[in-house]
């Protein structure tokens, strides 16, 4: 059979396999289901083309890489036992590292990475993420998000690199890290995944205009003319496709009142026919159900609209039998043409052949150590925080150190003393006694944000592995410096302890998607009280851990220094590296920092532009290995 011969051209293999497939098998390829309803028997019986994990969907709490590999392989055995043996592909959200998986390296969210404006760093992060995903047996990721967030009230703004499309385009270099660099002679628009087991198929999202919705409301309507859509929200897709992109996920939002999942002009007309994207288009989670209001009110119409719009694979993720039944009925009654089904399946098979999954369908255990080990993860993390030592595996050391570098470069210094000759940072490492305060100082969950271990993120230090900012400070200061931690001290405690200075770490609690939509953008309580109690009494630097700019102007006068840390991820040591001068501050805002929410939406170039800190702002400091002295 030609389709099983890797020496044949991909086009020949697709053609040979397509002519052997029944309608039922083709519709199965168009279906992506959630792991909780998947079994080897279900995958076999329904010819399922893809399985996925929703946010926080694990085979077991704190599951090891081996457990993930075994689960994925069990589903794959179902695929391989079908008549044609078409491999399924497992997909997962890996939006800042392999974030669903315990012990993975958690990189800063995109809102921080955009600050770096460093495509080389981004490529390295992509490669590290791909390796840690492949360590769990998974070959497909729903990343990167290339939304251009124009309003920070949007609950997904931290998934966006910038309000500026040029920075977003730069950051699409992460695709080369995830998939491998596309060969110079490759045809434009054709998917590419490097040979071997160290890369993954990527998926840019969410097509298109998801970051421009009215008032930043998630899944809302983006009101903009065609020129604005193409010049602001579309450029990232052009550059991604040129880089050999495998798949594109459609947005749950609308453009000028038309649901994107039903927008044939933009999916088929523009993306496939005009831009000549040759990979496959996938829906978002339960997205075709949401074509109607209320959700799932007319599923027959939703399936018809989504398929005819040009979507190829459907993240159903639970009602796969209903989807198959409805789609089969539509095809047999000529509501949906067989040529449309064939287009979808050809695209899916093209990506699968490109991934090499027909030749190597089963994941092995050769990469599991790239995720670290359950037994020594705490020891390893502690050692890395203090500097690499011999027992730390090179790959793990590299990934954690890479994340730490990304944290350093993503920090933005917004205030540093009253003037250039009266600065606070870098802080002295040697002091009699210092105070560390704030809800976010000793909380990895808060530090990592949404899409970490679970969909909405976590609180505390148990469900992920890393270094808190408090631990990082203790690692960094002189051995004689007493570090006192009090999450929300009262003014009397602060005044009576004769602290040399204070570091206050506050921000937002974790959230994802619509749960993060906010019309007030305030620091989570008791953050404002902590700032007032501490900074009103002693010299302080405030570190804001948030997924976007937040209301800070009312407290700014009390602070001696202010740092935007965004959502730095698991490697809090990167924050201490810069606070104490081992490295200098270099980050420049990739988002406008507003004065009040009444100004929103406000982006650089607007006629009414009057920010607290403008796009591109960021103070710099010079490295000093000993910190500094205030003597």
What does this structure look like?
The chain has helices at residues 10-20, 23-29, 40-46, 65-80, 110-116, 119-134, 165-171, 174-179, 226-233, 235-242, 264-274, 299-309, 320-332, 338-355, 377-386, 394-410, 444-448, 469-476, 491-496, 527-535, 573-579, and strands spanning 31-34, 50-53, 89-92, 140-141, 203-207, 221-222, 247-250, 254-255, 258-259, 280-282, 314-315, 412-416, 433-437, 482-486, 501-507, 540-545, 561-564. It is α/β, with parallel strands linked by helices. The chain folds into two domains: 2-360, TIM Barrel (Alpha-Beta Barrel); 400-613, Rossmann fold, CATH 3.40.50.1700. Strands 12-17-16-15-13-14 form a six-stranded mixed β-sheet, with helices on both faces. Helix 5 crosses helix 16 (394-410). The longest helix is centred in the middle third of the chain and has 18 residues, at 338-355. The protein is globular. The N and C termini lie far apart (80 Å).
Structural class: alpha/beta
What's the architecture of the largest domain in CATH terms? Alpha-Beta Barrel
Figure out the total of helices. Answer: 21
Radius of gyration: 25 Å
The largest pleated sheet is described as: 6 strands, mixed
Query: Fraction of residues in helices?
Result: 25-40%
Number of DSSP E strands: 17
Return the CATH class of the largest domain. Alpha Beta
CATH H level, superfamily name of the largest domain: Glycoside hydrolase, family 3, N-terminal domain
CATH fold category name of the largest domain: TIM Barrel
Uncertain residue segments = 372-393
Mean pLDDT comes to 95
| Shape annotation | globular
Q: What percent strand?
A: 5-15%
Instruction: Walk across the major sheet and give the strand order.
Output: 12-17-16-15-13-14
Q: How many structural domains in the coordinates?
A: 2
- Could you give the distance between the termini? 80 Å
């Amino acid at each position: 059979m030609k389709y099983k011969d890797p020496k044949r051209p991909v086009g020949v293999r697709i053609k040979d396999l397509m002519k052997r497939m029944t309608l039922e098998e083709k519709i199965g390829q168009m279906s992506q289901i959630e792991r909780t309803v998947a079994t080897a028997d279900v995958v076999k019986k329904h010819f399922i083309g893809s399985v996925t994990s929703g946010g926080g969907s694990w085979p077991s709490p704190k599951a090891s890489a081996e457990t993930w590999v075994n689960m994925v392989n069990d589903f794959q055995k179902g695929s391989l036992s079908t008549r044609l043996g078409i491999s399924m592909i497992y997909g997962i959200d890996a939006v800042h590292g392999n974030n669903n998986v315990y012990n993975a390296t958690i990189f800063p969210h995109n809102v921080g990475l955009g600050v770096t404006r460093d495509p080389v760093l981004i490529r390295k992060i992509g490669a590290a993420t791909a390796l840690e995903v492949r360590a769990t047996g998974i070959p497909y990721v729903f990343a990167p998000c290339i939304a251009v967030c124009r309003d920070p009230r949007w609950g997904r703004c931290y998934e966006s690199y910038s309000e500026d499309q040029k920075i977003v385009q730069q950051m699409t270099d992460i695709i080369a890290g995830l998939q491998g660099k596309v060969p110079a002679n490759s045809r434009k628009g054709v998917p590419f995944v490097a040979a071997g087991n160290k890369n993954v198929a990527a998926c840019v999202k969410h097509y298109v205009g998801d970051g421009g919705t009215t008032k930043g409301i998630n899944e809302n309507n983006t009101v903009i003319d065609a020129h604005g859509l193409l010049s602001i929200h579309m450029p990232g897709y052009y550059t991604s496709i040129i880089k050999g992109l495998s798949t594109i996920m459609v947005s749950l939002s609308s453009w000028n009142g038309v649901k994107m999942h039903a927008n044939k002009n933009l999916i088929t007309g523009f993306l496939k026919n005009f831009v000549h994207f040759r990979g496959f288009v996938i829906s978002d989670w339960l997205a075709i159900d949401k074509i109607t209001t209320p959700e799932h009110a007319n599923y027959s119409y939703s399936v018809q609209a989504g398929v005819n719009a040009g979507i190829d694979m459907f993240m159903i993720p639970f009602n796969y039998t209903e989807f198959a039944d409805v789609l089969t009925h539509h095809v047999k009654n000529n509501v949906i043409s067989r040529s449309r089904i064939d287009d979808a399946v050809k695209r899916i098979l093209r990506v699968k052949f490109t991934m090499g999954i027909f030749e190597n369908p089963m994941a092995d255990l050769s990469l599991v150590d790239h995720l670290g080990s359950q037994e020594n993860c705490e020891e390893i993390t502690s050692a890395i925080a203090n500097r690499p030592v011999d027992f730390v595996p090179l790959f793990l050391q590299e990934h954690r150190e890479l994340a730490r570098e990304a944290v350093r470069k993503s920090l933005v210094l917004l205030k540093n003393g009253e003037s250039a000759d009266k600065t606070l940072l870098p802080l002295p490492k040697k002091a009699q006694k210092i105070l560390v305060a704030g809800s976010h100082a000793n909380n990895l969950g808060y530090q990592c944000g949404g899409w970490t271990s679970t969909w909405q993120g976590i609180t505390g230090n148990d469900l992920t592995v890393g270094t808190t900012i408090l631990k990082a400070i203790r690692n960094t200061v002189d051995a004689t410096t007493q570090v006192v931690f009090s999450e929300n001290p009262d003014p009397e405690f602060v005044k009576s302890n004769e602290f040399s200075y204070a570091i206050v770490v506050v921000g937002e609690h974790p959230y994802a998607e619509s749960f993060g939509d906010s019309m007030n953008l305030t620091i989570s309580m008791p953050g404002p009280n902590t700032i007032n109690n501490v900074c009103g009494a002693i010299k302080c630097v405030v570190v804001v851990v948030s997924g976007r700019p937040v209301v800070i102007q009312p407290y700014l006068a009390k602070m001696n220094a202010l740092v935007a840390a965004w959502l730095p991820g698991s490697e809090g040591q990167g924050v201490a590296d810069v606070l104490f001068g081992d490295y200098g501050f270099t980050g420049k805002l990739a988002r406008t920092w507003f004065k009040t929410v009444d100004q929103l939406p406000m982006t650089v170039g607007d006629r009414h532009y009057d920010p607290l800190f403008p796009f591109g702002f960021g103070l710099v400091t010079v490295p000093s290995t000993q910190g500094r002295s205030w003597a």
